[in-house]
């Protein structure tokens, strides 16, 4: 979360979309005026609901759906944490395009992923992670320029990239 703080502070946040619940709780604690939508498959939403805190004052809502088939909820900012590595380029572009269509003007998408060096020779952890994603999901790790190409193909512009110790954070603006 620390790596993305600089990027997130550039937005007036009224809404997020994300899955799992932990990131949603962190977002509402950091941004008192933010509301968060957890949008994911029904089984994931049910798990997130069970783990949800009751002190969120209705600021975390849940919506069941498939981000490839169902309309993506409108928001200022979307956060995809460890999502794109699970999908091939065509599927990533479809997902990002769906978010771009639903994204409010001036908003964007934050992507948190393990990012390969441009020469694809490291870091070693990224190769291990990429291999696991290939074997389990058919996805793969990508370089920052490959992520930039996905953002551009979906209509996002001005990608910012912040390197982290393991996960990098990238912001594409609408």
Automatic annotation (TrEMBL):
Protein origin, superkingdom: Eukaryota
Output the Gene Ontology terms for molecular function.
acetylserotonin O-methyltransferase activity
Q: Name one Pfam family in it.
A: Methyltransf_2
Has UniProt tagged this entry with the keyword Mitochondrion?
no
Listed pathway(s): Aromatic compound metabolism; melatonin biosynthesis; melatonin from serotonin: step 1/2
Where in the sequence is the signal peptide annotated? none
In the Enzyme Commission scheme, what number(s) does this protein have?
2.1.1.4
One biological process GO term for this chain? Answer: melatonin biosynthetic process
Asked if the record carries the keyword S-adenosyl-L-methionine, the reply is yes
Keyword annotations for this protein, in alphabetical order, are: Melatonin biosynthesis, Methyltransferase, S-adenosyl-L-methionine, Transferase
| Domain O-methyltransferase C-terminal per the UniProt entry, residue ranges | 17-157
Q: Which SUPFAM superfamilies match?
A: S-adenosyl-L-methionine-dependent methyltransferases (SSF53335)
Under the heading PANTHER family, the entry gives:
O-METHYLTRANSFERASE CICE (PTHR43712:SF2), PUTATIVE (AFU_ORTHOLOGUE AFUA_4G14580)-RELATED (PTHR43712)
Function per UniProt: Catalyzes the transfer of a methyl group onto N-acetylserotonin, producing melatonin (N-acetyl-5-methoxytryptamine).
Q: What is this protein called?
A: Acetylserotonin O-methyltransferase
Query: In the record, what lineage is assigned to the organism producing the protein?
Result: Eukaryota, Metazoa, Chordata, Craniata, Vertebrata
